[in-house]
Amino acid sequence: MGRRGYDKVWLFRWLIYKQLTGCSYRDLESLTGVDYSTFIKFRKRLITTNWFTRVFQQLTTVIAKHASSLSLILDSSFVATYSGNEEPGAEYSGYYENTGFKLHQLIDEQTRLPLRQLTTPGARADVVWGRRLIRAAPRTWKVSGLLADRGYDAQDLVFTARQKWRLAKVGIPIRRTSQKIQSTTDLNYRSKAALRTLDPVFLNRRTEIERYFSRKKRVMNLGEERTRGLQNFRANCHLTSIMEILEFVGQPAPWGYYSPDSTKF
Are the CB atoms for 80 and 96 separated by under 8 Å? Predict the structure, then answer.
């Protein structure tokens, strides 16, 4: 007879518990009676088969399909390595004066649900990976708006978003040059402003993603895991995003967000 098997959903639920509580694999062994190495091997298998990424993509596909409108917010968040030292895939970021990774994220403003994400070493430029996130998002999404901060002030990024979602308002503040203060009479400023919505009320809605990242780190404990390297960080990011989505759809009435035929969800 072979070794006793365990229900995969049951094991995954305990991985969620570990993420939420910040406990160790040894703690899981004490709580479940299952050898701690079983949980470690199970998680490694999920990473090897790209399970976390695939499940995240499947969930977000259903969410976006049933959303009547999406107001997207684009941003990134730096996460220092747990060890505080160099790790595989980590980079030193002079801006944060630390070594770590970056999570680049597209979320829906209304629900604060993650819809697309990429993970990189910590010194990668936001605007470069912002372009990739926009290009990776389906044209079929019903996008009414896209918000980002000055780090994404690039005309080609704005143009790409406007071409993909023609009815969407793009709100990205125009960066002031170091040579002179741009004004509304400046030709460069006016050419950029022509493709954007710079209403302060609209632009201020971008702060929702700051609260999103704060909760992701404070409640979902992203960055507190005793894991090493970019591959593990990517798995942690997808796990926390899956947890956020499951938490949302588990509500009795998710804010009236879905259309009437969304009972199939």
Answer: yes
